[in-house]
Amino acid sequence: MEATIEIRDLTKRFGKVVALDRLSLTVEPGEFLVLLGPSGCGKTTLLRSLAGLETPDEGEISIGGDVVFSAPRGISVPPGDRRVGMVFQSYALWPHMKVKDNIGFGLRVQKLPRQEVEARVTTVLDDLAMGGLGERYPSQLSGGQQQRVALARLLATRPPVFLMDEPLSNLDARLRMDMRSELKRLHHDTGATTVYVTHDQSEAMTMASVVVVMNEGRIQQMAPPGQIYRQPANVFVAGFIGMPRINLLAARTLGDGRARFEVGDFTLPAPGAPPNAKVFVGARPEDVMLSLEPADDAVEFQVYAVLPAGPETIVHIRRGEVTLVARETRQLELKMDQSVWVGFDPAAINIYDGASGELLPPEGGSRREAASRMADGGRTG
Amino acid sequence: MYLVLVPLAQLIWRTVTWGEGDRRLSPAAVEGEVTGFHWMEAFSGPSSNAMLFEPLANSLFTGLFAAVFALLLGGVLAWVVTRTDMPGTSWLRPLLIVPYVVPSFAIALAWETLFKSPRIGGLPGLYETVLGFGPPEWLSYGPTPIIITMTIHYFPFAFLLICGALASLDSQLEESAELLGASRWTILRKITFPIVAPAFAAAAILTFGKTIGTFALPFLLGQPVQYATLATRLFSTLNQGLDALGYILALVLIAITALAVYASSRVLGGNLNRFETIGGKGFKGQLTRLRNWRWPIFGATAAVALAVAVFPLLLLGYQTLMLVDGFYGFDNLTLHYWIGESDPELAEGEPGLVRNDVILGATWITLKLAFISAAICSVVGLIIGYIVVRDRGGWIAKLLDQISFAPFLFPAIAFAAMYLSLFAEARGPIPALYGTFTLLVLISVVNRLPYGVRTGTAAVAQIGRELEEAAEIQGASWMRRFRQIVLPLATSGLVAGMLVSFVGVMRELSLIILLITPSTRVLMTVGFRYAEEDQVQLGNALILLVTVLTLAGQYLVWRLGKGRLARLRERSG
Fold first, then answer.
1. Any idea of the CA torsion for A295, A297, A299, A303, to the nearest 10 degrees?
2. B466 closest CB neighbour out of A90, A95, A157
3. Do B474 and A80 touch (CB under 8 A)?
């Protein structure tokens, strides 16, 4: 049950809007790939193109070695012949069919004998702990049960590729957590190549073996969740991933050999940054270190707001026009408007080119290296 | 396309060529040759005043006034019923719709019964019998009764449209104005009315389009005093064999409605379809409290409802029981016109309703016509609706959408004239359909198609696209998806739509009066003939029959809408 998905130079336009812009991507067999991005970034269009529900304008798609779509060769295999299964955001359960008929529909289309259909439906229902619900109508089930029926319908035909379009977004928060682990287990047990669309970054981070961040029809970064978080490839990914948002400071490196940034009226150490350049400094809230006493290289800020959130506290601090967000796990007694001294963990800071917004290499290396490192980031991670 | 645009082109063509019987109009006539004679004759000939301009003026006069009154009455009633705490709305609402559900000339007949004037001939009406002196002639016949009866017949139409708009109006909009200290009247004027204005304008245009194309009402109440409108003049012109002239009148009618629609879309900056889909979700909000006015307003509304819905039908019913029309006494009561055998002394030997072969035959044809048309209409409507919904934005969808709404623009009688001109003789592969049942089905289907497409579109739109895609992914073919997914889910909507069409076709007269021949008589045309021949009791009995049938159908639609439909919608939602 394993299949590689290869996408080459895929382009899809809706009128003047370019939904997919010469997008190329390889999904390795058995991978759990999550497409993540803001709404309108093209992730759903990509998924629907894989399923065959959308016809791209240019490019090629092959699934498990078979070309299922090719604009130059005029190939477009209908959805039913692509050996993919899909779970829809709305579940798309047919309201006029019983649960067992919903699940067995695809098998009946394949003209399997009746006993075989019934046996498989029963197995799938039992596997998902829903034995005995087969005679009900979808409207008689809870949201979580409907979700499982949608999964069961996908599993019944045993496709090598699973496509999922925000399958958990209609569940309440607690159920969503439970289903995450179930889906992960299911993926492990079936080993099916899975492409999963979501706009929820914590869902992407927790589920994916590889995350693809998309924006405006292009891949911004493809990497394992950890790398996406620690080393966002550009300012878009840096700003999109992480809650609270990353601190992105417009800065200028000094040309006096001190290797420092100038931000507003203060400076910071800048290991390995090119001199005399406009850059963005990216620091995650947890990389902003607060101290109650003045220290070397620490800058004085005022506390703007303190937002306790159980195990951690989010602190907003201000100096002139510059506002920073810090994540503090220690129990600090902070008052409004009191002074704190701020330092950065130089190893954790990412530096982005001020013009292109691309990540600059951490130590000395050239921009080209950074670019190539990014391009195969998914592999090396 | 063929069923809408080609007939129109043919209609125009016939007005600029010499026809078969035109030799008697002008010695220069050569059949088939192009001529401006007909248009010259119609617009500047010696009889153009009587033929065109007078009916045109009459049509505009009665049509405009009836539309305005219908809107005012419908609008006020809609507001009272949907937005206030007036009691009894649950039974007043269906009652107020009755005048529109019954055939239009039932009201004309009831009017005649009430205000018949012996000066025109025949026996006195109820008015004279009770008061002892005759009604003034302007009250019996001519523009006044035409406007009043048209108002009665069409106000429920405006009522329904405005009710839909008012029901979907979020009451929070009004409440927030109230919190700011606005008075009731200010809220109504500054908030409520502007929001429902598009629906109001749409109702105005559609009502005007209907009043101006109405045939039976002005014919029955205008003919006796030679008061003609475009629709009735069109009918008599075609009856005299002056085809080209009749077609010109039809074109003038179409032009007026087209102009009205164009004007409204210019003013409102939208298209007709947008108005058509007003309705949407009911939002039960805070109702306006009438306080002391509650019961007086209820009384007035109930009085209106009874006067327009119940009284005319009772009057007609009573009359069918009178052996000799016009004498109101117990010894004059009979069931002859319902169950009597043929009697040469009475009604020119026509037997009573249930023994009358003509009526029974017409009943059968009517039911057949209504059923077949409704079935075809809803299936075609579903398919077009499917394409319109699924191919949203595609050019085929747009084209279908536009064309299927075109019949809205054509007054029914003008539409019939178009078909008459197209199908009067064989043309290429299409045989001469005039006088056939097929033609009646065809024109009924095309005329009802806007409604069919609307219900079809609504039915498909309520089926999520993903439901179908889920089947597509599993390899189900289009046919299979349509059969196993779309059709079962659309059924309840379709059945409701079908019943609406069924009722609509059954009480349609203007549309088919021009196309009917003795072999294809339907109830409405038979009833019309009786009315014309002054066989009052039989005509009334027949109208009551149609009324009962349509009310039964309407009741079924209503039940269906409350029951199965609502349940299924819940399930798929």
1. -50
2. A90
3. yes
